[in-house]
Amino acid sequence: MKLLVVEIIRYAISGVVATAVHYGVLTTNIELLAFESVGLANFVAALFGITASFLGSRYFVFRSAAGDIIHQVAKFGIFYGLIAVLHGVFLWGWSDWQNLDYRLGFVVATGFQVSLSYLGNKFLVFKA
User: Fold this and answer.
1) The model's pTM
2) Contacts by 74-81, CB closer than 8 A, 24 or more apart
């Protein structure tokens, strides 16, 4: 039980870092680089967040550095690619189609993403 709690705390820390990377790139894409589509800006930002998340999960959360990195990258990439598409489609609908604030949409989409990613990483990508 204690190991699960420690793992969840590490996951939260890693997730905050990856989310900060994702959000920082998203904000840069919209505010500085003037992306016209929030969905596209989010897709690009998700690639950066996904990379931070993989590194955090492999080396900090699940400590699976001994695992086959090629298989982990492939499974992680496919899994997070699907999550990124869901995240991007949600933000497209939320911001581009409904004209709602992308920041609130990001929070809603990220909440869903957190649940999916922990379970997928634990049981699919970095399983012992």
Assistant:
1) 0.73
2) 75/124, 75/125, 76/50, 76/121, 76/125, 77/50, 79/117, 79/120, 79/121, 79/124, 79/125, 80/46, 80/50, 80/53, 80/54, 80/117, 81/50
